[in-house]
Amino acid sequence: MRKYHVNKETAHADSLFMFGIDASVRHSGEEIAEYIEFLNCSTAVLNEFGIHMGTNGYSYLIDAIKIIIDRERYDVRMKTDVYPLIAIKYGMKRQDPVEHSIRNAINTAYEDNIRKPGCNRMDGFARKPTAKHFIIYAADVVYKRMCRRVINNIS
């Protein structure tokens, strides 16, 4: 099995620091409000799926959702486009812990729903989702909710 190591030089420069608010840079009130809106939406969506703040992999999932939304496309490769960036953010030399934690959080929520049917939205999946499938679906839900709120604020 091929091991993937994180290499800062080969990571996409446009995606390296899109994980939130960098304290060393001045941000407008609008940028901060948009990021807080993203956090509120993504937290709510993950909670609906049974992935709560104390779950190992929770913050990695939020970062993965942010990367997908910021790239504005769903044709990403998790092992080369997403996991390395998250590993860099958290100062890891390898992406394996990120991948494992994300997979564990999704599997735990799915198994909770099997034990107690209807306890979360995981019953919407016919079978246990892959990490990529879940992250893309969650990013789509978060993006649509954020767009809906913007439209409601304009009206």
Question: Can you characterise this structure?
Answer:
Residues 1-19 have low confidence and may be disordered. With 155 residues, the chain is mainly α. Helix content is 58%, strand content 0%. The chain is built from 5 helices and no strands. The protein has helices spanning 29-48, 58-71, 78-89, 96-115, 131-154. The chain starts with 28 loop residues before the first helix and ends with a helix. Helix 1 (29-48) crosses helix 2 and helix 2 crosses helix 5. It has one domain: Orthogonal Bundle (Arc Repressor Mutant, subunit A). The protein is globular and about 45 Å long.
Short description:
The chain is mainly alpha-helical and 155 residues long. The chain is 58% helix and 0% strand.
Search tags:
mainly alpha, disordered N terminus, single chain, globular, 5 helices, Arc Repressor Mutant, subunit A, about 160 residues
CATH level 3 topology: Arc Repressor Mutant, subunit A
The percent of residues in helical segments reads 55-70%
Shape annotation? globular
CATH hierarchy class name: Mainly Alpha
Using the CA coordinates, give the radius of gyration: 16 Å
